[in-house]
Amino acid sequence: MSIYLKEQTLPGSVHAAFAAIKDREVRDGYVAALRAREWTLSSIAEAAQVSRERVRQIAAETEPRNVQGWPLPEPPLKPQPAARKQYAAPDPVKLKRLLELQPLARKVTGNSESNREAGEDYTALIWEIHHDDGVPLYRLAKFLPSQSSTGETTTVTAGALRSRLARYGYLVPPKGGKSKSYNRINPDNRVAV
Asked: Are residues 103 and 19 in the same domain?
């Protein structure tokens, strides 16, 4: 895999050099030298005023010659891709606590008093990890297991975490939204914080 651009154009100095060359052997050596530097067949053919096929044949048959005085530029490199953004990972201590609270938080239903405090702590910890520590919800979701209806262990979705945060009042519901998941929990059913 080449590190050079596919679309290449030789500089004007190379075009001028080819125009000044009268000897075919010198031209062929220069073509081979440019090809050895990984210039494309098209770019060399354009500068030498020959076909791409002829450039390929010359490069296959001819040894690159010492072309002192003739310019031998480097082909342009492909732009390097930007480094991938690194996202924060959840703190292992907080993650361990989340995993301890998760089964209890799932058991909170309706007006039930049982496990409500665990549900509040679980949601507050999710918010702390997301908002204060800067961990995106989709990344946090990858660390939290979930039971599917068939009994398989999957992962919690980022949408489920976002919905939980909205229901507990950590996220503002969208304006004009009709989603039931953004209906906040009745404050009378919340644990006094």
From this structure: no
Q: Which helix (H) or strand (E) holds 91?
A: none
Domain residue limits at 62: 1-81
Alpha-carbon distance 28 to 15, whole Å? 14
pTM of the model: 0.53
Do 97 and 76 sit in the same domain of this protein?
no
> Distance (Å, rounded) from C-alpha 21 to C-alpha 39?
19
- Spatial distance between the Cα atoms of 185 and 188, rounded to a whole number of angstroms: 8
Kindly state whether residues 137 and 77 are assigned to the same domain.
no
What is the 8-class DSSP label of residue 180? G
- The answer to whether 76 and 42 are in contact (CB under 8 A) is no
Residues 114, 63 share a domain: no
> Do 105 and 175 belong to one domain?
yes
Q: Which residues of the chain have pLDDT under 70?
A: 1-2, 66, 109-112, 147-151, 172-193
Q: In angstroms, how far is CA 140 from the centroid of its own chain?
A: 18
pLDDT tens readout for residues 92-114? 999 999 999 888 888 876 666 77
- In whole angstroms, give the CA distance from residue 67 to residue 58: 16
Report the candidate in 21, 14, 16 with the shortest Cα–Cα distance to residue 35. Answer: 14
- Token pair 């946090």 in the structure block, residue: 140
Q: Where are the beta strands (DSSP E) in 107-176?
A: 145-147, 153-155
